[in-house]
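Open question from group meeting: does this chain pack into something compact, or does most of it stay loose? Before anyone orders reagents, we agreed to write out a predicted structure and look at it together. Recording both the input and the output here so the notebook holds the full record.
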Amino acid sequence: MQESQMNIKEMAHLLEKLPLIAFEYECNPEKSQGRFTAVHGRAEEYLGIKPETLLENAALFFQMIFTADHEALKKLFESPDPVTQSYAFRFVHPDKSLRWLKVKLTKTVGMEKNIRSTGFITTPGDLELTIRKNEERFESLNTLYSLIIKFSSMLAQSPIDEIHHSVNEALKRLGEYAEVDRVYIFDLETETDLLNNTFEWCSEGTNPEIENLQGIPYSFVPRWKEIFAQNGYVYIPRVSEIDPQYEVEKEILEPQGIISLLALPMYYGDQFLGFIGFDSVKLEREWSNEHIALLRLAGEIIAGALNREKYERSLLLAKQIADDANKAKSEFLASMSHEIRTPMNAILGFSEILINTIDDEKNKGYLQAVLSSGNTLLSLINDILDLSKIETGQMEIMSEPIHIGSVFNEIVQIYSAKAREKNLMLGIEVAEDFPKVLVMDDVRLRQIMFNLIGNAIKFTPEGNVKVIASHRYLASDHRHADIFITVKDTGIGIDPINHEAIFKSFYQVEGDNTRTYEGTGLGLSIVHKLVNMMGGQVRVESDIGKGSSFILTFNAVEISSAEPEPETGHDWHSKSLTFSPATILVVDDIEFNRELVKSYFLEFGTLRLIEAKSGREGVEMCRMHKPDLILMDLRMPEMNGYQATEILSNDPETESIPIVAFTASSMKHDEALINELFDDYLRKPITRNQLINCLTRFLPHLIHQTTQRPASETQEGLIPNLKAKHLTAFLKEFNHELAPRLETLKDLLDSDMIESFLADFDFLCRQYAIKEFESLTSRLRQDARQFDFESYQRHLTSLSSSMDRLKQLAHK
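Structure tokens returned:
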């Protein structure tokens, strides 16, 4: 017995001298944790743990196994497989270094599934260690590669508001994979050369440092700055062993408890954005070149996501600034529209009343000048507002069937007086087979043509201005065609270097002509924008001294067989009107606006007008008097027109009363709200015709023609006192000299031609003592002077019909 004990002691003494740890280990996985029953050899040297400590606390050994190897080693000790097995693993030494060890053991399974293992732990051989390290490295690289693919997809798909969350998630995944304790990003402020810790992930039990690492001068780490500038990286395996010449780095890193560190630069293109870092505070961390290369890729992907976020936020900010500017501009223009149109309402309105109530021709001339100047100012205001509406997307294109020839004729006739003043020839050249009816926006096309023809006449001192129209059917069908409209002049021309600039807002070609030719520089800008909105293009062909041609192209315009809808409303100048008794409430804070409406209603004795100076007073007056119609201004103090209308529309006693908005606004968003709240609206400045047309939609009335049907149109005969032979002679001279000219005038409003025709027609009538046409010819002269094309056509048709009836009478 004593000899046996001596052998055991000798054996233990021998084991202490061998380069290994010999052990016995027992466990029953189903009942309790295992325990070491014997430990001999170099436990303290290899593990940093005394043998007696292992005997007392076997769990401590497994707690210090490197995380990636823990599960495999635990399974090796606790599986019942009796085959001798070995496994190389990594052990976290108490000095926080990571050491490679190898375990080899043999197991026996006893009663109640108790497992008894005997074996030894030693350092692996070079070949075995190399193989094990390579296996671990390849597996780790594959895992890292898959991880980068996943979070790069996540970052790419993240909306701008979730990029910060996605970056934090990417840092978390990288930290957990690398088994480090802190992963972070530092941004560089290039203006101040300061580093700021912007993102940080910390493992459980690791203190965050992000709040302490703000505003650090980049110059504090000159070595890092130099390395990053060369697109290199900083790898410090052990902070405690930093070279003394980099003592500043050590002073920054050691208080954070950092043992190992890897910092990789983050570039976007050639721009250095900052760096991403990986800190180990619990153990030393080794990095292979392959791992560092993949982690650099991860940093570049994160840098791209952060740069995308910065760029998209700058775009959103720019868009917000632009939207705010547009909103401010719209509000300013809406206010300007109201403030300017309101006095214009009085100027034009009272001028119209006066010009129709006084007989003195000299004073009428003064008033006509006021009206003309007022309309010119109003046109300028409309140009500015139109430009604003186009730029803010508040103008819509409304296409409908239009007589294109009538549009050309009407616009050319309007400018014929100006052309004659400058001795210019103004004409139209339209192809014979040009479509009669096109589906286009009538108002915007007229606006385009007004600007181009007006400019052509303005900048042409001599020669001519032509409007040339042609078309080309699409190859597929004849229901659509490309429309080409050219406004050509023989004017001063435009230098080719200015061909693009002239379409910019407020642009005028510099030179001596700037003062000679007045204008705002808005016309061509509006033309360009309107043509684009209508799906077309505009270009200019011109050179100095060689005239200009502005060529409009509208693609695939629909050719319509439908006739344009006739305009609603009437010309009340040729009619008298009787309204049934009614009460109208006028709500407006501007006194002369209310006075103007009252002046328009003076002739209607059956209409009773009541007034209110504000929205609040208007609500009270409406509830008190229950009017038949309300004219409501929109911009008023205390309570505006919108608020007052909301109250009245929600009151059962007043909800059925029609309310017409009386506004100076021309903005699209106002129109949408007006159409929703109000029954109709009138835009200032208003005319008598517009106001009466509006009233006839809501108030009972009777219409009477003021021009009595001449005796010539009665059943007794057109001209009862004219003998048959004289009638025949009258018609013979008319048919020979005047009938062809009358037919020509039906398609053309030319002041000179109509004046010549009417002079000859009046002379013929006087020869035969015929006075029945005097009223009609007088109206035709007035139409020509005022360029009232619609009224001109109506009166000319009336004259033609009268002559046709005379011919029928002569045959009888």
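Observations to bring back to the group:
Residues 289-355 form the longest helix (67 residues).
The chain is about 45% helix and 20% strand.
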